[in-house]
Amino acid sequence: MFGLVQILLYANAFYPNSMQTKKVLITGVAGMIGSHLLDELLKKNYTVIGIDNYSFGHVKNIEHNLSNPNFTFYRVDVCDFETLKILGKDVHTIIHLAAYKKISEKEAAMPTFETNGKGTENVFEVAKMWGCKVIFASTSDVYGMSPDLPLREDGDLLIGPSMIRRWNYAVSKLYGEQMAFAYYHDHGVPIVVIRYFGGFSSRSSFAWSGGHIPIFIRAILNDEEVVVHGDGGQTRSMGFVDDLVNGTVLALESEKAVGEIINIGNDEELSVLDSAKLIHEIAKTGKELKVKFLPMKEIFGQYKDILRRIPDLSKAKALLGYEPKVRLKDAIEKTIKTVRQQ
């Protein structure tokens, strides 16, 4: 009986390189961004191979595409190099979204480094092996506590003390960015680094790894307490997934983007507490908004929360013609409507 690697070797033998300019591999395809990106690429007649280990993603996000002949899914961990190198053969671009994010000081830190470190190294090794382009998904977290607002791609980064484990996600992604440029300069691997600013949809993880907007939506619709860290005065710029996907596709299809770091997201800025109030207003549940304020120290220990996070999108606009199209209020309305339908 054939194993997975033997089957993949057999299948890949029938795909000459000249036919693969629209063949991509998405890691983390069952996640929020990955699944919506899959929808869009299939609409644009791409052939997509997707992998996910379901640690954060879910089969329900991609099941409507499983019968599409242009999509092939494998339940594979990005740390599985032997399988990844087979899947990467004859692929034009790897869109590397798979990541692990530790949320609190109580959680183990090593899974973040293993996935975001070794997994990312595997992606770049495969790209070097087969001559693939890589779109590397980074995060606005790498800006840390930088006071230089709005946050620019060429600005300095300000990361907190190493003994505070909460920084490990930002540091692991920053390591991935450095790795991207090492493979670009040392091995000629075409790369684009996208720094996503918080995005959401009805497919978000309705836990803290998915951001505060989905958490608040679920709590308000279920008439539960909205847990706000600190006093809720910290601000974020949250964007709808459609805008994140649009920016990713623009980066995928642009030669100008190669070798660049690009902010993608929405530049509307709203405090966490005001976000809860806006969601409550839109949801029209007829119930009172219940807010529970939780001291930062109880969640993150000595970690200092980032007080403001807003992107400078001028580079994305100039380089890609990118412009966020979905306003935050509309994004919340869309998400609430879909969640209620589900």
The percent range for helix content is 25-40%
Cα Rg: 20 Å
Whole-number total of structural domains? 1
Low-confidence stretches: 8-19
Strand arrangement within the widest β-sheet reads 3-2-1-4-5-6-11
Shape summary: globular
Q: Oligomerization state of this entry?
A: single chain
Examine the coordinates and then state which fold CATH places here, giving the name of the CATH topology.
Rossmann fold
Q: Output the CATH class name.
A: Alpha Beta
Mean pLDDT: 91
Let me know the number of strands: 13
The H-and-E topology, N to C, reads as HEHEEHEHEHEEHEEEHEEHEHHH
Strand composition percent: 15-25%
CATH architecture: 3-Layer(aba) Sandwich
DSSP summary: helix tally: 11
Distance between the termini: 40 Å
Can you offer a commentary on this structure?
It is a single chain. With 342 residues, this protein is α/β, with parallel strands linked by helices. It has one domain (4-199, 238-267, 310-326): NAD(P)-binding Rossmann-like Domain (Rossmann fold, 3-Layer(aba) Sandwich), CATH 3.40.50.720. The protein is built from 11 helices and 13 strands. The protein has helices at 4-12, 32-43, 81-87, 110-130, 168-187, 212-221, 241-253, 272-283, 296-300, 314-320, 328-341, and strands spanning 23-27, 47-51, 71-74, 93-96, 133-139, 191-196, 199-200, 226-229, 235-236, 239-240, 260-264, 270-271, 291-294. It has a 7-stranded parallel sheet with strand order 3-2-1-4-5-6-11, with helices on both faces. Strands 7-10 form a two-stranded parallel ribbon. Strand 4, helix 4 (110-130) and strand 5 (133-139) form a beta-alpha-beta unit. Helix 2 (32-43) crosses helix 7, helix 6 packs parallel to helix 8 and helix 6 (212-221) packs across helix 11 (328-341). The longest helix is centred in the middle third of the chain and has 21 residues, at 110-130. The termini are far apart.
